[in-house]
């Protein structure tokens, strides 16, 4: 059924206002606007000490309508400077592996649990992740993905609230609220352990298949 016909039938049934409002809420433009609002808030956020050393907070980027979101732990030095997620060496590896699956990075949304860079690229503390998690939750509420591909043990811990042995648990699919978590390595780990590159590639491929099946 064409969109115009669909709207006409709903108008006849008295649903005109509700239908149009829901359509508006779900447009890509509307999603981008809402994400931009979160971006404005995090640039001013001082909820945890990570704000003290940041150049800027890094919200995330990509397709706001994606069924798959890649989530790391926090921005690093390059990300902090450029204001974009996964643009350093680990990010370049992630981009290359996504492209090796036949997709483009821009097709998906990419972000981190913490929006500000921890000093010296240390792992964010549980408290810092807890403080920042509501922003990620708001992003996910807007994007409404089906699958969250968690890159590394720290991102997985933020969702599961327990220790995660990523070498044992990678490849796991876990129900979380109305979404699926797909656990895999952080690309930075693969840079240190190049023999695991094919494993990360296969995981990314599987996460994409899961999201779009
Ligand atoms: S890491 Fe998150 S909670 Fe902490 S200051 Fe940055 S935006 Fe705020």
What is the topology?
Layout: H1 3-12, H2 16-25, H3 28-44, E1 61-62, E2 68-72, H4 77-82, H5 89-100, E3 109-112, H6 126-143, E4 147-151, H7 153-160, H8 166-169, E5 173-176, E6 179-184, H9 187-192, H10 197-212
Parallel strand pairs: 2-3, 2-4, 4-6
Antiparallel strand pairs: 1-3, 5-6
Helix pairs in contact: 1-2, 3-6
The structure holds iron/sulfur cluster.
Iron/sulfur cluster binds next to helix 6.
What does this protein structure show overall?
With 213 residues, the chain is α/β, with parallel strands linked by helices. It has a single domain (27-212), classed as Uracil-DNA glycosylase-like domain (Uracil-DNA Glycosylase, subunit E, 3-Layer(aba) Sandwich). Helices cover 50% and strands 12% of the residues. The protein has helices spanning 3-12, 16-25, 28-44, 77-82, 89-100, 126-143, 153-160, 166-169, 187-192, 197-212; strands at residues 61-62, 68-72, 109-112, 147-151, 173-176, 179-184. The protein is globular, with a radius of gyration of 18 Å. Residues 42, 45-48, 50-51, 57, 114-116, 128, 131-132 line the site of iron/sulfur cluster. The site of iron/sulfur cluster has 14 residues, from helix 6.
């Amino acid at each position: 059924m064409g969109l115009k016909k669909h709207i006409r039938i709903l108008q006849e049934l008295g649903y005109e206002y509700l239908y149009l409002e829901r359509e508006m809420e779900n447009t890509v433009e509307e999603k981008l606007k809402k994400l931009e609002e979160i971006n404005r808030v995090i640039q001013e956020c001082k909820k945890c000490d990570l704000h003290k050393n940041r150049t800027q907070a890094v919200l995330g980027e990509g397709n706001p309508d994606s069924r798959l979101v890649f989530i790391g732990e926090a921005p690093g030095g390059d990300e902090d400077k450029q204001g974009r997620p996964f643009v350093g060496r680990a990010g370049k590896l992630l981009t290359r592996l996504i492209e090796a699956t036949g997709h483009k990075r821009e097709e998906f949304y990419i972000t981190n649990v913490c929006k500000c860079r921890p000093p010296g690229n240390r792992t964010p503390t549980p408290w810092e992740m807890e403080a920042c998690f509501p922003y990620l939750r708001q992003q996910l509420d807007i994007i409404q993905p089906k699958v969250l591909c968690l890159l590394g043990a720290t991102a997985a811990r933020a969702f599961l609230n327990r220790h995660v042995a990523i070498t044992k648990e990678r490849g796991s699919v876990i129900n979380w609220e109305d979404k699926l978590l797909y656990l895999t390595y952080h690309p930075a780990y693969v840079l240190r352990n190049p023999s695991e590159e094919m494993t990360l590639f296969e995981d990314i491929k599987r996460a994409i298949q899961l999201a779009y099946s």
